[in-house]
Amino acid sequence: CLHQRRSNDASIFLRILGDVHVIPFGCDKRGGEEDGYLRLCGACQAIRRLPDTFFPPFINEVMCDDDKACLYFYDFPHGKCTQKHMNFVVLKNVGTDDCQIWQKFNLNVRVSCECFVDEMSFFAKYV
Predict the structure, then answer these.
(1) What is the DSSP letter of 41?
(2) What pTM did the predictor assign?
(3) Percent of the chain with pLDDT over 70
(4) Three-state secondary-structure class, residue 40
(5) Cα separation of 72 and 26, whole Å?
(6) 71 touches 117 (CB < 8 A)
(7) Domains and CATH numbers, the chain
(8) Most buried by CB count within 10 Å: which residue of 5, 11, 40, 103?
(9) What is the pLDDT of residues 66-115, one digit of tens each?
């Protein structure tokens, strides 16, 4: 199944291969503390189940949550949370169940959610 999902830029659609399930209680919200540091962007752990013709059948991902802004100052965001990806090679059966022919397939996997500071913001000089 190919699902379309709107990216951070409203004009771009990304095709997501397979079905995605967010892990219950697997989300970290913006502002959450971890090892003495505060999270700038919210993110959720998810498992993507690939179609039956792919191996491995499951891929772990980290997705940005619905909060797309970061680095607030007086309720005004000075940055945006951006989904980052890595290319992973998986296998795809292009044959049949009885005569399997496996080919390499490049899969774009969501791996993190990063805060990018607006270059016009006064915070930019601290980057």
Answers:
(1) S
(2) 0.80
(3) 89
(4) coil
(5) 24
(6) yes
(7) 2-121 (2.10.90)
(8) 40
(9) 989 999 999 999 999 999 999 999 999 999 999 999 999 999 999 999 99
Cβ(19)–Cβ(94) under 8 Å? no
| Cβ–Cβ under 8 Å, residues 114 and 81 | yes
- Which residues are CB-neighbours of 45 under 8 A, at least 6 positions away? 22, 23, 26, 27, 60, 61, 62
**pLDDT tens-digit series, residues 20-74:** 999 999 999 999 999 999 999 999 999 999 999 999 999 999 999 998 999 999 9
- Cα separation of 19 and 39, whole Å? 27
- Long-range CB pairs of 24-30 (<8 Å, 24+ gap) are 27/65, 29/65, 29/67, 30/65, 30/67, 30/70, 30/81
CA-wise closest residue to 57 among 95, 24, 27, 17: 17
